[in-house]
Amino acid sequence: MSNKKDSFLVNRLKSIGWAFKGAWFLLRTEASIQIQFSIATAVTIAGFYFEISKTEWLFQVAMIGLVMSIEAVNTSIEYIADFIHPEFHANIGRIKDVAAGAVFIASIAAVIVAAIIYYPRLF
């Protein structure tokens, strides 16, 4: 094996590959991400159907990215917590609850943004 370091570009491409692998793993194995992805798909279809503005698209895409990213971080925290302390522990439970709370907060914000965008078009 060579001691030569890979170039910056090769390292970035490897990082993208690992990130894609992680995202694909989440989408295949985690029900919460599958639900978020289904909702994201539905609002994306709605965005095309209702011909939302560029600004509305920006907010919608940002909220989809926020919720799914926080969901992925929540899942990571759960994996780490379970690895560190597999048995029930009150502090581990609290850590998991706080991480889930972050997803809840982001999801509420996303629902508010969706309501602002779609309520006038639906009613």
From TrEMBL:
Q: List locations, semicolon-separated.
A: Cell membrane
Which Gene Ontology molecular function entries are recorded, alphabetically? ATP binding; kinase activity; metal ion binding
Cofactor: record remark: Mn(2+), Zn(2+), Cd(2+) and Co(2+) support activity to lesser extents.
**What are the GO BP annotations of this UniProt entry?**
phospholipid biosynthetic process
- Cofactor requirement: Mg(2+)
List of catalytic residues: 71 (proton acceptor)
InterPro entries, sorted: DAGK (IPR000829), DAGK_sf (IPR036945), UDPK (IPR033717)
Q: How does it sit in the membrane?
A: Multi-pass membrane protein
Q: Which UniProt keywords apply?
A: ATP-binding, Cell membrane, Kinase, Lipid biosynthesis, Lipid metabolism, Magnesium, Membrane, Metal-binding, Nucleotide-binding, Phospholipid biosynthesis, Phospholipid metabolism, Transferase, Transmembrane, Transmembrane helix
* Transmembrane domains' residue ranges: 31-51, 98-119
Q: What is its main location?
A: membrane
* Calcium in keyword set: no
* Ligand binding (a divalent metal cation): 30, 78
**Which sites bind ATP?**
30, 78, 87-89, 96-97
Q: Which family does it belong to?
A: Belongs to the bacterial diacylglycerol kinase family.
What protein name applies here?
Diacylglycerol kinase family protein
